[in-house]
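Annotated sample (chain length 379).
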Amino acid sequence: MKQITTPTLSPQADMSNPTPKSAAEASKTMTARDILLPKNTTTTPTNSFSSPLPSPVLPEPEPVSNTQVNAPLEKLPSEVRRNLLSRLQLEDLSALVHASPIFHQQYLLDRRFLLCTCLETSLHSSSIVIDACAVYRTGLIDFSDARTHNTVIHFLRTYQDRRSSTKYSIFSEGLIESEIVEIVAFHSTIIKPLARQYTDWALTNLADETKGTRSITPLSKTEEMRLQRALYRFQLCCNLFGKNVDSSRWFFQGLNFKSVDILTIFLCLFEPWEIEEILCLYTFSKVMYTQIFKEIHWDLDANNPKFDDQGRPPTPTGAFDLDDDAYLMGTISLGLKILHRMLTTRDHEQRVWAMQEHICLPLGDFLEIEGSDVLDEWT
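Output written by the structure step:
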């Protein structure tokens, strides 16, 4: 099934000027956070759509002018421009507001509304929007540091009520502009890149197992939606039962969740195939970290001569016993931000330093106990 893509806006080019970049071309050069421009930015885009010249005869060259000519799209009434922007996916929104000063100003005037509507369009499903908002709220330090069994259970009841609602809208979340900006940033800089990396890993493994050729067919909308859903729910599991990477707390009294707790209060909320989706992301994280641990094993070994200037005991600062699977489980439970950072850090020394900063023990059993994932343990 071919992937359906949102058509890009491509007005006829001005025949007397070089053809400007289309919205799709512009998006390739944009960074993931380019859409999140602050309101007080002093930088405005310089590209704009050109007015069409229907005449078949080329006009005489005219002196170059710094005056920009508005494209027909830019001459639409502001209400129509707003409606147009609200129907785009996030990448297309970013491309258009960077290609046109008029649309950029329109975006800044109604930033919260447009980010909300475009996020809903990009995620394809209200249930994934609910997951994205749940990930944001549980990732806050205030929630993380105040976690108890009761607060986690209460949150999941509220989460399930929202999933069961037939009238859900992202606007019912009551998000302010800075909050929706954070949600969009997480989607653009963490979810989408990791979705591509997971897809590449999974398709490569499939080709190796079947002795066939790796598929180059893009994911369908349904496949993309399911993968993003799994990423958000895996992150939600990390937020609820793992260590918050931004928190300074390393011990939580009475928060030692067992595998049966995760099964009975979290995974039981989903269909069996949705649980498998979450566990596939856990497997992906485990494989990636296992490879990284092998690469840096000697660098963090207490017997490495670089720790000779530190006395024994205790274990030297910066040294870890990576043969202890608990460190692997704890690091996985930190979630997707750290995983993405590790996968994009190619320099060996930088990776060693980053792992020394973040490696940790789990708060409980998380998604694995004694070498088996929780689903195997349950069955």
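Annotation: The chain has a mean pLDDT of 82.
Annotation: The first strand starts at residue 368 and ends at 369.
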